[in-house]
Design brief:
By secondary structure, this protein is mainly alpha-helical. The protein folds into two domains: 182 residues, no CATH class; 198 residues, no CATH class. Helices cover 77% and strands 0% of the residues. α9 packs parallel to α12.
């Protein structure tokens, strides 16, 4: 997508420079979010007890799964693409359908939050669990409106600004949590800032999105939702990605308890967070020459993106076979560039970061984490296979291979979860080393399955 920047009475070339700055804004915001997360993580390790870190980790995993489910519930119903492309007289009805879809999912999720929170309270007697449950339910109520406003901002050709706002929301949330930890060491401060910053981000999105009239009584017959089975399959595929990233925390908590979960969380994230900050910054500074991602849907994946684009096929694709071929070759070149960047740039950078972490982690973390320093350094290398596999997964889902992507995600997800189940009883050290090895093997295997036979080398 080209973002129009109209300036008058300016020297030639100024408009191009302004457009480049607009496209760089999401990348800068992502760097800020990555740095803020790394700083918050180190502060959690310094200020919280292991059991408190475990509670915070549990809450963060639940919050991310909730956001993933609601985001995919909206995008899978073809609502986001319809919002961006529909005529003005049909917009209210389509937005009403999107709102009702998300509200129905929100009600189910809030009921699940209430049931799990009450059960955990009676099991452990921790009042903080009930409070976190209330926070998560309140955040779930805001997510549908956030998603709707983001789609409307894309309709108004403000996708880059919307992406920047959401990434700055993440950065500010982490920074507020960092500040609160200085004065109040509690797991509640990890979730509380999400409720404080979300309304501010919602107001910012409203400023850049198209105005929307009251759609409560709007006609929804003009909207064209996808068949329920397709919606369920698409949501399942996205949930598998969420489970791959977060379900291991629930398993560790169930088998080893909250203190072990706190140790596992720091081991998994300390090296990985710092490695991600450095590698993403280097690739961003190098720009397109490094194969930096250019077009990934913000609502579809929720992964780091640099420019949000409409979901679904182009309305013109049905009339031009050559345009389909051109887009396929362009996407293949982009995927090859991403893989090359990970191997030629990300891997050497990650190796340097791991060497620095080997020396600096004892100073960054205290003696409680001495047993997991080596694990944290090893897990930092997962940045490379995870980056490559994520790019391949997106490429398949955008190029008519969603079923193949679903099966590969099933294999990777359940392979990792079974690894956690079998290795957790042997302790965090065995789990950490085993997880790093199996995760790398599974993601590399899935990448090879996705790439072999798919990339057309003539499309260079």
């Amino acid at each position: 997508m080209t973002i129009p920047v109209r300036l008058s009475n300016v020297p030639p070339g100024t408009e191009i420079n302004a457009a480049m700055r607009v496209r760089r804004m999401p990348q800068i915001a992502q760097i800020c979010a990555n740095v803020a997360w790394a700083v918050l993580l180190l502060m959690m390790a310094r200020r919280l007890e292991l059991s408190q870190i475990g509670v915070a980790c549990f809450a963060l995993a639940a919050a991310n799964l909730i956001k993933t489910t609601l985001r995919k519930a909206l995008s899978s119903n073809a609502s986001t693409f319809a919002i961006q492309t529909s005529p003005a007289d049909q917009l209210a009805g389509i937005c009403a359908l999107a709102t009702r879809t998300c509200q129905s999912w929100t009600q189910v999720i809030i009921a699940l939050i209430a049931a799990v929170s009450v059960a955990l309270y009676f099991i452990g007697g921790e009042l903080a669990v009930l409070v976190i449950g209330v926070f998560l339910a309140a955040e779930a109520l805001l997510i549908p409106t956030m998603l709707l406003r983001t789609a409307l901002a894309m309709r108004a050709h403000n996708a880059s600004q919307a992406t920047t706002i959401l990434r700055l929301q993440t950065a500010l949330t982490h920074l507020v949590g960092f500040g609160l930890l200085l004065v109040w060491p509690s797991p509640l401060v990890i979730i509380l800032p999400r409720l404080v910053i979300a309304p501010i981000a919602l107001l910012a999105l409203a400023k850049i999105s198209e105005p929307l009239e009251d759609a409560q009584e709007a006609d929804t017959t003009t909207a064209s939702p996808r068949p329920p089975l397709e919606v369920a399959a698409s949501i399942t595929a996205e949930l598998l990605i969420g489970l791959r990233l977060h379900a291991d925390k629930f398993i560790v908590a169930a088998i080893l308890g909250l203190e072990a979960l706190g140790l596992y969380f720091i081991a998994l994230n300390a090296g990985l967070a710092i490695s991600r900050v450095v590698s993403y910054t280097v690739i961003t500074l190098l720009g397109p020459a490094a194969g930096a991602p250019k077009t990934t849907s913000l609502l579809e994946t929720g992964e780091p993106v640099t420019q949000a684009v409409p979901l679904g096929p182009s309305p013109l694709s049905a009339f031009s076979v050559s345009s389909v071929s051109a887009r396929t070759q362009a996407s293949q070149r982009a995927l090859r560039g991403r893989i090359s960047a990970s191997l030629l740039i990300n891997l050497p950078v990650t190796t340097i970061v791991a060497a620095v972490l080997h020396v600096s982690l004892p100073a960054l973390l205290d003696a409680r984490f001495s047993s997991i320093f080596g694990i944290a350094v090893l897990l930092s290398f997962l940045t490379v296979p995870n980056d490559i596999w994520t790019a391949c997964d997106r490429w398949m889902r955008r190029n008519g291979q969603a079923q193949h992507a679903l099966w590969l995600n099933l294999i990777v997800t359940f392979g990792l979860l079974l690894t956690v189940v079998f290795l957790a009883p042997f302790g965090i050290v065995a789990l950490g080393y085993g997880y790093a090895l199996i995760a790398a093997m599974l993601m590399i295997g899935a990448t090879l399955s996705a790439v072999l036979g798919n990339l057309d080398t003539s499309g260079r």
